[in-house]
Write the structure tokens for this entry.
Amino acid sequence: MNRNAWRAAIGVVSIAAIATTGWSLYAVARHYDAPKGIAGAAVAVFDGAAYACLHLASEASAAGRSAVGARLSALAMAAVSVYLNVTHADLIGGGLAAALLFSVPTLALLAVSELSWAGPRAEARAKLGERPFRLPAFGGWAWLLAPVRAGRGVKARAVDHIEHAGQPPGQHLDKSWTATDRLREHFSTMDPAEAIRIAHESQPALPPAELAALLVTYGVIVDAVQVALVLHQAPAKVTVERGPDSSGQGPDSPPPVDPRIALARADMLSGQRPEGITEAVRELVKRGIKDKAAVVSITRDVLGPDTNPDSVRRTLTREIERAADAAPAEEERREGFYP
């Protein structure tokens, strides 16, 4: 439908609604012995005020301003008009059919006007840089098979929209997303074999084990054997030279790296992120990670660089004590001391 046809349709609906409602209101006024002039004035007041409110609401929507006041006023006038139309139907004994015949034109005009404001208002908001919240398109199967995770995803999207409302599009991404975050998102959606080849081309000297550890930090969960299979290599043999001490490490060798740290970092960054320091630290303690430096580093990567390291350390101490206090009770429960 072109613009002229749309305007013609709106004009027909407006004239029909005003005429039908005006005649019904005039009949009600005359029933109460109002003079013809007063009855005509009542029609002008109701129809004129309702039409003026619709016009003001349309203008406000096109300008991107709030049209709540005008829309509520139009709704109130329409409600009073419908009530009088139903009264008219009762006066002539027309029943439900007459009530619908007299009141539906007013409701139709209000509904068409309400729907017509959506397009101009959306265009005006887009020009002003506003981003209306839209539900993510997960699809029916996602909601059916994983409703809890889908709900969490919608909540995370809504919280992000609220926190960054009023900012120009894309601005908040530059502040909260680092280059590592963007690369992690890119690699996590890529075919693992392709990610392995790209990483190998950028770091050809790295053995499969170190290349796998590097990919894990970017959200690609692979091991040394899988890397070797993709690159048609054999996993590098590890030779341990034991020093004079019984630990197998020389005096100058660095401490071994706990593989759980890299795995926990990748899991927490690629999955549903915790909402606070306590939740993040508690998750790391459950994974057996209690090193303060590692916990502080992972927590700040997950929650942002503004996270207070001292708060993380205090929370870690508290969670370790909490886990230690809960361990005897859990052990006694397993041995049958508690039901």
Q: What stands out?
A: Residues 169-175 have pLDDT under 50 and may be disordered. Residues 133 and 158 are 7 Å apart (CA to CA). Residues 3-31 form the longest helix (29 residues). The chain has 16 helices and no strands.
